[in-house]
Design goal:
By secondary structure, this protein is mainly β. It is 5% helix and 44% strand. The protein has 2 domains: 19-104, Ubiquitin-like (UB roll); 108-363, 7 Propeller (Methylamine Dehydrogenase, Chain H). It has helices spanning 2-17, 130-133; strands at 29-36, 40-44, 48-53, 57-64, 68-75, 87-91, 96-104, 108-111, 115-119, 125-129, 150-155, 159-164, 169-173, 188-193, 197-202, 207-211, 226-231, 235-240, 245-249, 264-269, 273-278, 283-287, 302-307, 311-316, 321-325, 340-345, 349-354, 359-363. The strands form 9 sheets. The protein has a 4-stranded mixed sheet with strand order 3-1-7-5, with no helix packed on it. The protein starts with a helix and ends in a 16-residue tail after the last strand. The relative contact order is 0.10.
Length: 379
């Protein structure tokens, strides 16, 4: 008798763990075929054909690639709880085929000490922060309302830089060190703003820089094979096409000690720390770590990183965000964010773009740099 009981328990356990959700005895089994368009994938239960019993409730989780947003589920969607939600469920009542749809979007935010800058899908730019508080009467870094055909924005301590679709660059704001002297740049495909210097990536993988060079942060003329640049307080970091990283400038806290990094796909420079995203979604960091801003060793499934004054933010593939480091103004309180497709860490605030083009922000708001709730980056 004991053997029969054990056998029945084992069968029940196996039946109860097949597929997702609840399994019903004596029900028909059906095939659920799942696919996706370019720009993302289906993480749960995966992609391909799956077999489930009738009545099973299957969890669906679509994950984005950076620069894209989830649109909806299409196909046999009658029993999907919410076709517009990347994380939803489908109830099996027959053979079904569904697709997760994504689209590329060129919207983003940039953040620094006093401001947040947003790039709209139509190539125009919006700003919140110091300039709006004082009606454009300080450094002028918020005077971006007439910019057009912009494909990337970046924010420095008191200046803002925009990359235009024709490869030229515009800049406004404080120019005491020549950080806005970018009018003659051409063939640029990426820009980065440090405290008082600006860096441009040319299409041939070389670098140009202007502005404060007190710590040698602009001595990048010999760099080649670069695919991305980022700028910190008084230093510059470049990502090479082979996944290695180079850095130059102030190294007081070890923020330039990136020479042994490999398999990196994105870099971010903060005030005194540097963060690298690896191809497997893990994250590495070096530099000043007084409040844990470099404690990213346990992060996984990250698709973008941003480094602030003394905090670090990561965007997870499921559209959520994680953050570590200083939280004196609430700048790491991003645990309840969802449907995020881009993050930016300022000196003491954090901004995120949602898949619908709206923007959220937390942290220091003395200069209204978090007043982004009315922004719509997608028309």
């Amino acid at each position: 008798m004991a053997r029969i009981v054990i056998f029945l328990i084992a069968v029940a356990l196996v039946a109860g763990t097949a597929g997702y959700g609840t399994v019903y005895a004596n029900r028909e089994s059906y095939t659920l075929t799942i696919g996706s368009t370019a720009g993302g994938s289906v993480a749960a239960p995966g992609e391909g054909p799956f077999t489930y019993y009738e009545g099973t409730i299957v969890s669906l989780v679509a994950e984005i690639e950076l620069g894209h947003r989830f649109i909806n589920w299409t196909g046999d969607v009658a029993t999907i709880a919410n076709v517009n939600d990347a994380a939803t469920t489908i109830t099996i009542d027959g053979h079904k085929s569904i697709t997760a749809n994504f689209e590329e979007v060129n919207i983003m935010v940039a953040a620094d000490f006093y401001q947040t800058v947003g790039l709209r899908a139509d190539g125009t730019v919006v700003s919140a922060g110091l300039e709006q508080l004082y009606n454009h009467g300080t450094y002028g870094q918020g005077n971006v309302g007439n910019w057009t055909n912009i494909t990337q924005v970046t924010a420095g301590y008191t200046h803002t830089v925009g990359l235009k679709s024709d490869g030229t660059v515009v800049a406004v704001g404080g120019n005491s060190k020549g950080q806005c002297s970018v009018g003659d740049w051409t063939d640029i495909i990426g820009v980065a703003a440090g405290s008082r210097h600006t860096v441009g990536l040319r299409s041939d993988g070389t670098i140009v820089a202007t502005g404060d060079n007190t710590k040698g942060q602009c001595d990048v003329g010999a760099w080649t094979d670069i695919i991305q640049v980022t700028a910190g307080d008084y230093y510059t970091v470049g990502l090479r096409s082979d996944g290695t990283v180079v850095a130059i400038g102030d190294n007081s806290y070890g923020q330039c000690n990136v020479g042994d990094w490999t398999d990196i796909v994105q870099v971010a420079a903060g005030m005194w720390h540097t963060v690298g995203l690896k191809s497997d979604g893990a994250v590495v960091a070096v530099g000043y770590n007084d409040v844990g801003q470099c404690n990213v060793g346990r992060w996984t499934d990250i698709i973008q990183v941003s480094a602030g004054g003394r905090h670090t933010v990561g965007l997870e593939s499921g559209g959520t965000a994680v953050a570590v480091g200083s939280d004196w103004a609430g700048q790491v309180n991003v645990g309840d964010w969802s449907n995020i497709i881009w993050v930016a860490a300022g000196n003491s605030h954090t901004a995120g773009v949602k898949s619908d083009g709206t923007v959220v922000a937390v942290g220091w708001n003395d200069f209204m740099q978090c007043m982004v709730d009315r922004w719509r980056l997608i028309s």
